[in-house]
Design a protein that fits this description.
By secondary structure, this protein is of the alpha/beta class. It has one domain: Rossmann fold, CATH 3.40.50. It is built from five helices and five strands. The protein has a five-stranded parallel β-sheet with strand order 2-1-3-4-5, sandwiched between helices. Helix 1 packs across helix 5. The longest helix is centred in the C-terminal third of the chain and has 15 residues. The relative contact order is 0.19.
Amino acid sequence: MMKIYVGHPTDIDFREELYEPLRKSKLGEEHELVFPHEDSDEVFDSKSFLRDECHLFVAEVSAPSTGLGIELGWADEFGVPIVCVHKEGSEPSSSLKAVTSEFRDYSDVGDLIESVRRGIKDVG
């Protein structure tokens, strides 16, 4: 069972669009999914988690986010594999290619789950 950190911009509806579908999918049974703002809007100590416990970072990168960029830098520094997912038609920042070559686009919830599943398989 992998510990998978799910990072994202905070200005999207991450609880409904990201957390809920992933939690309800079989991925939530097969792996430990860590959602930094599931129970609180307080700052999550992602740096320590990425350094000490994380096996994979799944980043929703449809919109730019300074905080997410910082977390991606930490993950890269600590050798944590990174998979970026983004909504079809969005243009993720080209600077993300400095930390990963794993990009998956998705069009709906089912596609999101499959994109994450393929990312896990490809880096796991």
